Amino acid sequence: MMTRLVGIDVARALALFGMIIVNFKLVMGVKEDDSALYFITSLLEGRASALFVILAGVGLGFMANSSEQRQRISFVRWQICKRAIALFLIGLAYSPIWPADILRFYGLYFLIAACVITFSNRALLWICAGLVINFVLLLSLFNYDQGWNWDSLVYKDMWSAQGMFRHLFFNGFHPVFPWAAFLVFGIWLARQPLLEKSFQYAVCKWALMIFVVTETTLWLLRNWLVPDVVNNEVGELGVLLSSQMMPPLPTYMVSASCSAALVLIACIWIAQKWYQNSVLKRLAQVGKLSLTFYVAHVLIGMGILEELNMLGGQTTETALFCAAIFCLMAILVSAIWLAKYKAGPLETVFRVLTR
Q1: Which residues pair with 154 in a beta bridge?
Q2: Residue 93, Cβ neighbours under 10 Å: how many?
Q3: Greatest CA separation found in the chain?
Q4: For each successive 10 residues of the chain (355 residues), what is the average pLDDT?
Q5: Which DSSP string do the residues of 84-133 spell out, in sequence order?
Q6: pTM of the model
Q7: Distance, CA of 143 to CA of 354 (rounded, Å)
């Protein structure tokens, strides 16, 4: 169990670092270009946050699995619901500062988790498929662009009842349909023999194969159907033949799930091999304080960037350099903090609120 938890904390740290890079690129106004660095950092968009949600599901799955043996599942459901309410309210209060915040969506994912936490493995996978398919149905019935100003990434009627509902469940940054499928998939993963070599090999084999087939097929179709012509109709076709996170089509959900599974298994395998490695220990410490650093990268990190007048017109290299500095500081701060305390400041507050 210990190596599994270390591996998961390391994966959580990597997911956090990926989200910091993506968000710093966004707020620093990095323009799209043909450089290899831009392409590499763009691969993190929607992937790091998907891994973050899946890891949350894994954590809930572990909690339920250990409690089922004590016949305390009703207590676990209540704990998950309390966490859901706290996350939703914190995220809602936080969203005026950071509109792309994921915490308010987490609250709704957790409510779904409280309902399905005892479902069978097969039922969990069917729920994942249902959430993805329901989004496709919603996409065919409603206007995905409604409420959005895509030039500024501002959601115009966010604080109206209709706009809030639409944003949370359909066309926000991380809507319940289909993003909650990531959390449910994480619960399913938590029930699997994550430490067994045969399972690790099978996951890596299938995840890598599905990922490569999906991305290669999409790339070939894009180059065949939308070669060099640029207009609105072709642009929409290009979106349908992509695995970008907005809109979160089934291709994105499958691709992001596979990449997340590969990273998670790799982290667990590395933790099994080099459990005492100092780098792994430092990364695992960051993973334990992920909530604190997630909030801090906006309030502190972006706050400093604003003071330095760096919110806009920056290069990929500059954004990546600033993100790297913040990540290094997170490693240093987490080591100092956990030398004195058992949990991070926001993690402690969150536990008190949901006790």
Answers
A1: 149
A2: 12
A3: 62
A4: 75 96 91 82 89 95 71 83 91 87 93 93 96 94 90 86 94 94 96 93 96 90 64 57 86 95 95 86 94 92 92 90 96 94 88 76
A5: HHHHHHHHHHHTTT-TT--HHHHHHHHHHHHHHTTS-HHHHHHHHHHHHH
A6: 0.92
A7: 37
